[in-house]
Write a structure and sequence with these properties.
Elements: H1 2-16, H2 26-157
InterPro entries: ATP_synth_b, ATP_synth_B-like_membr_sf, ATP_synth_b/b'su_bac/chlpt, ATP_synth_F0_bsu_bac, ATP_synthase_B_chain
GO cellular component, one term: endomembrane system
Family: Belongs to the ATPase B chain family.
Length: 158
């Protein structure tokens, strides 16, 4: 009889089960289990990973910001150095130009001095030659006078 009672309980329990949806205590238990698993996963897995991803995004954003700031600063320094280089080149060209002008002035002054010295030497040589010419003419005149006196004396003595 005991078997029969168990069998009737089994038959009655199988008749109640077997529907497509059984609304017994397992459905709320499964939903609570799902919610608990979601909370645990959120606390243990999703939040730390999302925090790590947020920190990485922030690090990348900061790195990009600092890199762009460094790039802007490098561009400004490049422009400044290029401007200074251009100014230095202009100054060097001006110095070279002034040096060339100064050298031309020095050369022209020395050429003028050399020409004056040459003119002075020519004047001195011309004056010396004139003086020598006059001396030669005087000595020739005296010699001509002496010779003419000798000739006259010889002509008179004869």
């Amino acid at each position: 009889m005991y078997n029969l009672l168990l069998f009737s309980l089994k038959v009655s329990s199988t008749e109640n089960q077997g529907g497509l949806f059984d609304f017994n205590a397992t459905l709320p238990l499964m939903s609570l289990q799902f919610l608990a698993l979601t909370i645990v996963l959120n606390l243990l897995f999703y939040k730390p990973i999302s925090n790590i991803l947020d920190e990485r995004d922030e690090y990348i954003r900061n790195s990009l910001t600092s890199a762009s700031a460094s790039l802007v600063k490098a561009n400004e320094l490049t422009k400044q150095y290029e401007y200074e280089l251009a100014e230095s080149r202009k100054q060097a060209q001006a110095i070279i130009k002034n040096s060339q002008k100064d050298a031309q002035l020095v050369v022209s002054e020395r050429i003028k001095e050399a020409q004056k010295d040459a003119e002075n030497l020519l004047k001195e040589a011309y004056a010396e030659l004139n003086m020598q010419k006059e001396q030669a003419l005087k000595s020739l005149e005296t010699q001509v006078d002496i010779l003419s006196d000798k000739i006259r004396l010889k002509l008179l003595d004869i």
